[in-house]
Amino acid sequence: MAWLVASALLEVSCMKPIALVGRILFALLFIVAALGHFKPDTVAYAAASGVPLANLLVPASGLLAIAGALSVATGYRARWGAAALVAFLVPVTLTMHKFWAVSDPMMAQLQQIMFMKNVSLIGAALYFVHAGAGAFSLDALRARSRKPELAAAGS
Length: 155
What we know:
Layout: H1 2-35, H2 40-48, H3 54-74, H4 78-96, H5 105-131, H6 138-154
Helix pairs in contact: 1-3, 2-3, 3-4, 4-5
């Protein structure tokens, strides 16, 4: 019985770094993709796709994606960062991946794949909004450093 408890404790402690790795890998996609939001070709493509004020909104969306991704990756106010990624993803998905409006079957299929990828990313971001960053994060470090203050205030 003791080995079962020890095994369960080891499994839980080994799982903590997995959230950190998952957050970094999740955020990496947004950081790499958002860098393209500052290129004239990306702005022109968005404008051709019907994005209003593309010269302003495309770089702004890049900043939003980078800020949200860095927040999630570092675990600093990760719930807010994940919410920023949802705010980025929803309009981008609906305006840039309108597979239902594409007449070429190959392009429609490609846009549908991109649409569903973004829907999955929205789901992952919503999970971070719900669960937070996990043990290895700046949020957790901040919470641990505030516990002595809270204990002193309560006594």
